[in-house]
Specification:
- The chain is of the alpha+beta class.
- The protein has one domain: Nuclear Transport Factor 2, Chain: A (Roll), CATH 3.10.450.50.
- A six-stranded mixed beta sheet has the order 2-1-6-5-4-3.
Length: about 160
């Protein structure tokens, strides 16, 4: 086999492997996010907590929680425990992966009952994920109010 042909074959192999690895990492992140969603809705607290990194940071509107203990004890656990009849929908899910770091953005709609009051929360969510010891863990979660799309200017 000539050198040029060998280089061409190797280039094709690399081109095939790199996108496959990226797709595999993206699929892994999407699977981790699906596990997070499932644990949240089903109130599986051990599974939900297991997906959070020790150094997680969570922002929700005017609340800022730093570290797993703060996030868990003062935000996620009490909130998830208080919700009943939880229904969640996530749309416009986008995933970017670079090595062992991933960014997920999505729109959320959560309906539940909390202390006898109906909750209808909608907004934007950004999640940062990091692969540590082969497992994807949430390192950052940020919830914000919905951003309605502005009407596009008409083209005359």
């Amino acid at each position: 086999m000539s050198t040029n042909r060998l280089v061409g074959v190797l280039a094709l192999l690399v081109a095939a492997v790199v996108p496959a690895a990226a797709q595999s990492a993206e699929a892994e992140v999407r699977a981790a996010v699906d596990r997070y969603n499932s644990a949240f809705v089903s109130k599986n607290l051990p599974a939900l907590k297991a997906l959070l990194a020790p150094d997680i940071v969570l922002y929700e509107h005017s609340v800022r929680n730093i570290g797993l203990d703060d996030v868990w004890e003062h935000h996620l656990r009490p909130e998830v425990q208080a919700f009943t009849d939880t229904k969640a929908e996530f749309t416009d899910v986008r995933v970017w992966v670079a090595g062992d770091v991933a960014l997920v953005t999505r729109l959320y709609s959560i309906r539940a009952v909390m202390d006898g009051r109906p909750i209808d929360a909608r907004g934007n969510e950004t999640m940062g994920w990091m692969r540590r010891d082969g497992q994807w863990k949430a390192i950052h979660i940020h919830y914000s109010h919905p951003c309605p799309r502005q009407p596009q200017p008409s083209r005359s």
